[in-house]
Amino acid sequence: MSTQTQTQTANLPPDMFAAYSGLQGIYDEMTLNAGGLRPHWKKFAESIGPMDTQELASRWEQGRRMIREHGVTYNVYGDPRGMDRPWELDMIPVIIPPQEWSAMDAGLAQRARLFNEILIDLYGPQRLLKEGILPAELVYANPNFLRPCHGIEVPKNTFLHLHATDLSRSPDGQWWVVSDRTQAPSGAGYALENRIVMSRILPDEFRDCHVQRLAGFFRIHRDALRQLAPHNQENPSVVVLTPGPYNETYFEHDYLARYLGFGLIEGGDLTVRDARVYVKTLEGLRPVDVILRRVDDSFCDPLELRGDSFLGVAGLIEAVRAGNVAIANALGSGLIESPAFMAFLPGLCRRVLGEELKLPSLATWWCGQERELNYVVQNIERIVVKPAFGSQARGPYFGAKMSVKEREKLIQQIKERPYLYVGQEYATLATTPVYFQEKLQPRPMVLRSYTASSSNGDYTVMPGGLSRISVSVDNPVVSMQSGGGSKDTWVLTDGPVAKVSLLTPTGQMISSGANSAELPSRVADNLYWLGRYVERLESILRQLRCLVNRLGDESGVEISPELANLVSAFVNMGMFPEKFRGTFTAKELEHQILLLIYKEDHFNSARQTMNRVRNLASIVRDRFSSDTWSILNKLNLDSRARPRRIPLTDSLVLLNSLIVDLSAFSGMEMENMTRGLGWRFLDLGRRLERATQIVNLFRGGLDSRVKTNLLLEPLLEISDSLMTFRRRYFSGLQLPSVLELLVLDPGNPRSLNFQVKSLQKHTGRLPNEGNSASYQAGLKCVASLARCLEQLHHFSELSDQIETLKSQAHIDAGLEDLQLELGVLSNHLTHHYFSHTVASLS
Q: What is the pTM for the complete model shown?
């Protein structure tokens, strides 16, 4: 599917619906077997039909641009695009009529209630095992059965707070359950993003088709989570626990946290004290009442579960056992995710709920039973063999696609450990139209629906879900990891659609929430270093642009004295190797500049620094508005890998573009970020790095091997202060006036004095519990910076002597003192605020 959305062009045929046909003998979502559109598709087709090809192509390009700007990704380990793999969305929705959805809604809600009751029993009295309704091996051999969680009472007797069900159709159109997700279901956030994109690019079609909204589902889910809180029920602290930015669905974790109004945290942000969970913030420990987890069961507590896990928090189960924190889904919910349970669901539904199962599952045979084992072995060429307990066995195995020898080997494996395998009916997936290669083509489809618990103990079904499609019509595997794509799912209604919002009704008082202003120390750390690397990247880009401008002006092969001196200064700064101290050619210099722009593994190259900015920004993306993230995403897109050969003049265009992107980010930071601790640490990093870069630039030029007077104009250009200098000073370029503007001027945002004053202001407003000695040490660091700066004022009065080598050596010594103090301040911030250690509670 990775190329499907990329091939959407303006050559869209006006009769694309009439030209489309499904596959023989396979149910198609849009067309009837006898030909023609299904009745509930006609409204959509009529609405799309009148559009000309240019308008439709323009709308779809708008949708693709929204996905790029929002940074919607699905990360796949080992994918060449890494963390930049864009989310694939097809422009044709899946449409479900209201009568059909009504039956599906009832079946999905029943399934969630059934699964919840089974979990209550298996982690409680275990009557189902004692009465022989479920085989004991199905539970005790399952690694997802968490023995430390047995006997723990969960709030409101609810294990499943979010349940996902994968569905497909049989050839006659009957919906069948393919699999269930009960541990930490993913995809709901992507379904919401798909809906937002589609409703914006096809607003009239969305409205005219009377599509049910999704906001009501998320509001019920959010309210139910808040009411789980064992403490502080009026204003509970709810967080989303994520494995981190390298997880394949991290975008969704961040997206849902912001949409629901919860904090996004990692396991390292949490600690347990006296059987209570706390988040480690700069202001101290803050209690957590509810955790919406996106971390698998076994990784949540290294003390009682997987000891090698760094994703959870030690002591979490003890806090759950004490009733001090609620977790959704409850720990141990992954037990019922095994496909082996599907073989027992009809009987379980009659026994547990006293009802017939409304939504059937694919025929499933657990090989832990002798009769079922024999059936699987005898019919292996007609079924799919899957692992019963996730990673405990490999698979799936499609018997029809295996050789005789491969089937014999698989049978031997099954017989050795039969309880690890299930056989499942081979399902020929229904198809749905996608636009590919300038026409509609059928693709196999699976619908993932979502069911959430409500505050009254019932279950609510999302009207729609995440429809996924395979990469090709011949590929029966529907998986985002294998290159598949997605679709929005439209559930129609007969009448007008009620407008539902997650916003609080007018007139109702709301509290900002204790966690709204809190900043975990890990987040402060990442924001601080994001500020540093953003500023470092801008400095590198400006330095390289200064070089490219001058190298492009060279008329011959000889290097001008000004350019040679500039390169020599960069050698002093460690930007260029020592061989550029002496004689070098323009070609050698050009090669080195290109390395510094594009080479990813080159020390302090623009590309390497850009990667660090991108990684840090992805970690703290929940701290930025959509507009700010769009700018960061554009910065990343503009820095894409270059072709094998590129002219240096084209690189100048790239450098200018990236500098503009960084300027836009700086503007958003200053104008759009709330002046909380997050902004303060971001700006602290920027100011400290800018001060460091100013000192490095001056020290690189104040060297006996460099003619300082030839570096003054490049120094002003790199510092973006050349026009200011020309307006202020009527004399030629002289070191005293440049020193005054770039070092001593308190009103120049690019001066060293401006940075020091900003650092003084920030450090004076950082959290300080009990007027600690460590906090006072930070103030002393900044005071030392101010004293070092005062010493440099003396040289501004010696205009007739300042350009002597002796005076320049004194200036360099003063700058060196400043450089050392800047390092001391950075170390202090790291140790005092970012060490992630926490004092004991008073």
A: 0.81
